[in-house]
Amino acid sequence: MEKKQVEAITARDVDFAQWFTDVVKKAGLIDYSSVKGMFILRPYGYAIWENMQAVLDAEFKKLGHENVYMPMLIPESLLQKEKDHVEGFAPECAWVTYGGSEKLEERLCIRPTSETLFCEHYANIIHSYRDLPKLYNQWCSVLRWEKTSRPFLRHREFLWQEGHTMHATAEEAMEETVRMLNCYADFCENVLAMPVVRGVKTEKEKFKGAEKTYTVECMMHDKKALQAGTSHYFGDGFARAFGITFTDKNNQQAYPHQTSWGVSTRLIGGIIMTHGDDNGLILPPRIAPTQVMVIPVAQHKSGVLEAAGALRSRLANAGFRVKMDESEQSFGWKAAEYEMRGVPLRLEIGPKDMEKGQCCIARRDTGEKTFVLLDQVEETVRRLLDEVHQNMYDQAKKNLEDNTCEAQTLEEVKTIVNSRGGFVKTKWCGQLECELKMKEDAGVSSRCMPLSQSGTKGVCPVCGKLCTTDIYWGVAY
Amino acid sequence: MEKKQVEAITARDVDFAQWFTDVVKKAGLIDYSSVKGMFILRPYGYAIWENMQAVLDAEFKKLGHENVYMPMLIPESLLQKEKDHVEGFAPECAWVTYGGSEKLEERLCIRPTSETLFCEHYANIIHSYRDLPKLYNQWCSVLRWEKTSRPFLRHREFLWQEGHTMHATAEEAMEETVRMLNCYADFCENVLAMPVVRGVKTEKEKFKGAEKTYTVECMMHDKKALQAGTSHYFGDGFARAFGITFTDKNNQQAYPHQTSWGVSTRLIGGIIMTHGDDNGLILPPRIAPTQVMVIPVAQHKSGVLEAAGALRSRLANAGFRVKMDESEQSFGWKAAEYEMRGVPLRLEIGPKDMEKGQCCIARRDTGEKTFVLLDQVEETVRRLLDEVHQNMYDQAKKNLEDNTCEAQTLEEVKTIVNSRGGFVKTKWCGQLECELKMKEDAGVSSRCMPLSQSGTKGVCPVCGKLCTTDIYWGVAY
Lengths: 477, 477
Ligand SMILES: [Zn+2]
Ligand SMILES: [Zn+2]
Fold this sequence. Notes:
The structure is a homodimer. Chain A has helices spanning about 15-25, 45-60, 75-80, 85-90, 115-125, 170-190, 235-240, 265-275, 305-315, 330-340, 350-355, 375-400, 410-420, 430-440, and strands at about 30, 40, 65, 75, 95-100, 100-110, 135-145, 155-165, 195-200, 210-220, 225-235, 245, 255, 255-265, 290-295, 320-325, 345-350, 360-365, 370-375, 405, 425-430, 445-450, 460, 465, 470-475. Chain A is of the alpha+beta class. In chain A, about 50% of the residues are buried. Chains A and B meet through strand 2, helix 2, strand 3, strand 5 and strand 6 of A and strand 2, helix 2, strand 3, strand 5 and strand 6 of B. The structure holds zinc ion (2 copies).
């Protein structure tokens, strides 16, 4: 039998990494395949991704984007057209060298990202300012042959979406870059209950080939940073490399300006590590595959299953994602199982509740139980799901704020990193040397320069130079 | 400028293959990439696939299936576990031999289909009869390194879905196989307006590794056959090869029984060749990305754009997929453009219509125009879309019936094939030799043995043996 007994998982404070692995495995999100670093997304894990996709895809389309599908293979010569880009990605490409029994004349890499494919296509279809903007997006998997791997956080193959847009002017492209960054930030906060820091990456940390990389950075329960999504501004660098030109309104030849942006199944890792507790997953209600699990109490008693089934139907009709477990397992087993799986609300109904015309709803986030009159079930569930979301967000926000410290000197940074961890906010002079020194001495990388800058003056903790830029440092996944 | 003038396309009767290529290119469904046989699905083409996915996915889920995602790479040793299967697919696998700069110890093929991956996973998760059935489906792309390629009909990489299910008994697995075949048949007929012949493949034509392959066969406008979807029954062959066992209700070890089933973007090729005419695409209303195109007439005149915009909004609010073209292009250009793109209904409104409180709706399938009172627009559009669907289905059904001939002798078969083409229905003795001879002499392959068998007796047209099996022959894509 597929293992169904609810086994204990490692406590977060004992071994956070092991806790994470326990949760993804025992909640049935992931299984291992025979190829290292390539994971199987099981129904429960994939359903979370589907729910994320549905929300994001609708958002993208509302903003005018269209979906396309590009080939998964890139000829080596095409990948090499943009110098920085190939340097960044070639070392981790998987290469196809044979088609059937025939050796290929040119080897092909499985896409690690598709800028080059989109640019080749754009060169064919962009000719006039009337063809702009082009707002394309693609849902697909990409492959990066990394040395180490962890479920959701670092897969050799992972599912994502990649937006690739072309615009007539630099201003428009920059607006798009920021628009999509904000789209991701809103999604993280309003749908995943994950508060973010919106910011810009340093030159060192930006995407290979981009002029500017925007990022949303989240703090996990263990106070490490997770880069949840990025949005890149390319200027006309790729357009020049790929010979993409258009006739502008003044009948002049011009290069279009480009963006790309993406989020991946890594977000699932993010919600696990932001919200989960020692009893397992806690899923944000707006993407939980099951929002309400109905569990009949003393289900052998007359009328219980019917009453529970009626509630399930009513909630389904009201548009909630609801399931009922009427299996032979004990009530205790079921309660623990759906706690492990992070179902936001558990609805119980038994003979005593029926007498009183009520049911009991237990929240996964707080454990709190509420008795609800049967005719108020729909409105209560709606309200509770919103409250669960808000509480999860507030908890995560508190974690982020409580664990973000300001520092003026390198010594202070080191003390914070070694004692309590979390994000350290400092000033930065903008020099690569200081950024490298911070990594070397304090073990932190720059996370981002937040979009909301204080504007105050201060000193770079490394070189002591007077400067204004605020920057976040942290240890990242 | 992206080419927008409406160019003439080759007539179907002059060169059907060229007509097809013209249509997919000029309607903006497909573009070529730099890798032979790998195509770009442009927004209009991909949107058709998305609409197909939405309907099918909901149908699959209603039947209890769950989506998963398996890795795209299969180790050679895993592919080789089932003998017939590897023989069928190894010759057309694309092989990954390098990860970064490192030569792999074992080469990996990009999945041509995923039976082996699902079986490896099922071996991990199926232990008891309580774990069955497993009803998994996957949406992904697969790769087959074929020599020739044609848009939609034969891609080296194509998008599809592959269902893979495991059942406690042979009966249940066989029921699932037929259920999914009927699911595809209903989808083709009720959604794509493509009438089908439901049947079973011969031993020669069945899927490599399957015990039995069910198929839905459609007839294109040029009277050739298109295999639109297949559903396979595997028995316990793979289960034995992969060591998948479970404890049954009597506490005995047993092998589960398996199915797989799939449809792909090939269906888009099917609807183009079933419904299109010399003016371009004709899209079935239920999957058309745009069901109604609103075109303002004399749009510079006061109030026209507002009136047209109001109609567009009303139709969008009523749940139709509707767009408006208010570009500078002439009315004639727009009419021809959306005819080429196969939009089922064109709604025109100009100053004269406004005076009369009406608009004009033109059908793509018949060209028929109807004047509609403005307050009846929603109900008329709803009715017309259904009528367009029904008429498209009826036309295709007539084409299928008019071009299906019965024959008793090989000579008759040859005469039919050489004179008028289409499907030939005969009796068949069941021998491979007769099937091969039919191919050799008449140039036709067996399409299927229809599920609805007449039960009458007759002679095999090749060997003359008395037999009862009805079978369809044809030239296939
Ligand atoms: Zn400095
Ligand atoms: Zn015969």
